[in-house]
Structure formats: structure tokens, C-alpha cells
């Protein structure tokens, strides 16, 4: 059985392996939550898209304790980990690629913001367009989409794109000069070996929740999909190399 304390330890380990790819991960979290806070409501309704074990959702509620956060993911193991660690959060098992996913959120009004970090690039271009279009139907006018991810510009500014990756790589080498933490695959292998996750690991395998590669990593693809979905403005609020926080404002 996965205990609360064990779940917290595993999420701390998850955070460390994520920082191996994103040495400025906490800074990006801070910028994202700053934007939610600056939108003006002390009690915003926020949807966390592809929440994983709840790292962003938990930080949002620490900063904005009056907020209501609905944390959405399709991975049974990560959801189980988050539920054990953060019983005060609302986790919902949904595949964002399935039309009608918003109907299962239990919303009693329009959301003020939708947030995501290092998740939406796993959705293919056509599914991304449909997901953003459906998201727009449950955001209030002026509501925000805040997406922190590695978003590339090779299709529009290839020379700048190479420099962005170089800046990120150099920062990572400085941050981990003494050795990198375990990587994504090593974390999953360790989880699979822990008997406490046996039931959740079986559920994950049955659900086919494994990622199979990045599908929509171009910034332009996200911007075009958001504009077509009815978001009036898009822009980068924070950036470090090709790691950026994309913001879109609902029309």
C-alpha cells in the first residue's frame, strides 16, 4: 500500500529528476503562479492539464490557498501517487485527446485559468487543436492558458532556435557539474520495482499510458491552434533558452 509519506518521497524524487531536464523548473513554476495571481482573483478556478503527480497544483494552492484547482491526467500511476500525497487536491482521470473531456470536470462555472507544465507536447497536432478548442469553451472571457514547456522555433527562426537550445544546454551543464540526478527512465524503472506500486503499475500498463515521443514541440503549432480556438492574444511571459512560458488570453 502506498502511504502518504512514501508518496511525498517519491514526488520529491520525481521533482529532482524533472529538474535534471529543467534546472530552472521552480523559477518557471513561480512565473506561472505569478501570472495566475496577477489575473486578479484571490480564489481562481484553475484546471491543471496533464498534472502528473500534482507538483504544479500543490504549489498553486500553497501560494493561493483560496483557489480551486482541478488536476487532470490520464496516467493511473501518477494520479495514484498524487492522491496519496495530496489528499486536499482534486484529481480527475481524463484523456485530453478524447472529445467531451471537459464534461467530466464537474465545473459549476467558467474557469479562470488553465495551466500546464512539460505535458502538452505529448499531444499530436490535430488532437492539440481539438483540445484547445474544447478548453476555450470552459474558460471565461479574459481567462488564461499558461503552458510551460520546451517549445521550439526551428520552423520560423532556425538560427535562434539553435542558440536557444545552446543556452539551455550550457545552463544545465553548469547546474549539474557535479553529476546529474536520475533521469526519467530510471525513475520509472525504480517505481516499477517498488511493490507498493504493483496495482497502480498494472493499471498504467492496462491503460496504455506510456508516452511514445514528442508530437507537438513547435511554438508556432501551439500559437496557431490557440488562435484558431478563440484566444485573442498569445505571448511568452518567461523564457530561458527554448524553455518558455506561453500565455494565451481567451477572447
What does this structure look like?
InterPro entries: Methyltransf_25, SAM-dependent_MTases_sf. Keywords: Methyltransferase, Transferase. Residues 46-143 form the Methyltransferase domain. One of its GO terms (molecular function) is methyltransferase activity. It holds the Pfam family Methyltransf_25. The protein has a seven-stranded mixed β-sheet, sandwiched between helices. It has helices at 4-19, 25-38, 55-63, 76-85, 125-136, 158-175, 184-193, 198-207, 219-228; strands at 45-49, 68-73, 90-93, 111-117, 139-150, 231-240, 243-250. It has nine helices and seven strands. The protein has a single domain (4-250), classed as 3-Layer(aba) Sandwich (Rossmann fold). The radius of gyration is 18 Å and the shape is globular. Helix 1 (4-19) packs across helix 4 (76-85). The longest helix has 18 residues, at 158-175. By secondary structure, the protein is α/β, with parallel strands linked by helices. The chain is 43% helix and 21% strand.
Q: Which descriptors apply to this entry?
A:
7 strands; methyltransferase activity; 251 residues; Rossmann fold; single chain; alpha/beta; seven-stranded mixed sheet
Describe the secondary-structure layout.
Elements: H1 4-19, H2 25-38, E1 45-49, H3 55-63, E2 68-73, H4 76-85, E3 90-93, E4 111-117, H5 125-136, E5 139-150, H6 158-175, H7 184-193, H8 198-207, H9 219-228, E6 231-240, E7 243-250
Parallel strand pairs: 1-2, 1-4, 2-3, 4-5
Antiparallel strand pairs: 5-7, 6-7
Helix pairs in contact: 1-4, 5-9
Amino acid at each position: 500500500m502506498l502511504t502518504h509519506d512514501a508518496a511525498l518521497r517519491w514526488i520529491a524524487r520525481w521533482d529532482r529528476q524533472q529538474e535534471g531536464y529543467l534546472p530552472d523548473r521552480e523559477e518557471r513554476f513561480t512565473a506561472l503562479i505569478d501570472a495566475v495571481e496577477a489575473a486578479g482573483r484571490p480564489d481562481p478556478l484553475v484546471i491543471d492539464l496533464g498534472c502528473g503527480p500534482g507538483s504544479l497544483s500543490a504549489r498553486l494552492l500553497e501560494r493561493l490557498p483560496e483557489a480551486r484547482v482541478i488536476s487532470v491526467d490520464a496516467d493511473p500511476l501518477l494520479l495514484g501517487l498524487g492522491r496519496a500525497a495530496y489528499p486536499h487536491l482534486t484529481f480527475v482521470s481524463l484523456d485530453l485527446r478524447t472529445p467531451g473531456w471537459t464534461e467530466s470536470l464537474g465545473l459549476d462555472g467558467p474557469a479562470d485559468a488553465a495551466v500546464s507544465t512539460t505535458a502538452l507536447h505529448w499531444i499530436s497536432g490535430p488532437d492539440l487543436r481539438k483540445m484547445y478548442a474544447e478548453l476555450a469553451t470552459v474558460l471565461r472571457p479574459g481567462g488564461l492558458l499558461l503552458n510551460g514547456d520546451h517549445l521550439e522555433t526551428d520552423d520560423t527562426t532556425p538560427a535562434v532556435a539553435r542558440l536557444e537550445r545552446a543556452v539551455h544546454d550550457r545552463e544545465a551543464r553548469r547546474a549539474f557539474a557535479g553529476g546529474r540526478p536520475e533521469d526519467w527512465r530510471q525513475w520509472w524503472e525504480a517505481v516499477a520495482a517498488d511493490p507498493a506500486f504493483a496495482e497502480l503499475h498494472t493499471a498504467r500498463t492496462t491503460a496504455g499510458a506510456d508516452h511514445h515521443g514528442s508530437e507537438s514541440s513547435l511554438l508556432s503549432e501551439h500559437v496557431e491552434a490557440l488562435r484558431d480556438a478563440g484566444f485573442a492574444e498569445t505571448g511568452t511571459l518567461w523564457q530561458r533558452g527554448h524553455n518558455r512560458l506561453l500565455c494565451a488570453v481567451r477572447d
